[in-house]
Amino acid sequence: MEDEEIDRTKKNDEHIGIVSLVRQDEGYKRMDVLVIPNNTEELTKGKNKDEILKIARENNGSWYSIGEGEYKIGQTVKVFYDKNQNVLESNPPKKGAEIIRI
Questions:
Q1: Parallel, antiparallel, or unpaired: how do β-strands 94-96 and 99-101 relate?
Q2: Which domains does the chain possess?
Q3: How far apart are CA 97 and CA 4, in angstroms?
């Protein structure tokens, strides 16, 4: 994914962190990736989904929706997203990703 271009017409921001949860939305052929900054394997290891979501809320984690990709829990990623986009009301928040780089 390194060769993908970022849309420079948007006011992009970036979020660096660890993939902590991944969920597939088959109906829309999209996937959601929960990224928690400054996460370490020890922080979420052995935790269930609810515990990980609580850690995400406490540590500025966000869900990112992306069209396709092979993302695995534990990967360090850099997410580029339009900081002026509408964010879905959820906690942690859900945003659309422009690009997710591993």
A1: unpaired
A2: 12-101 (2.40.50.140)
A3: 13
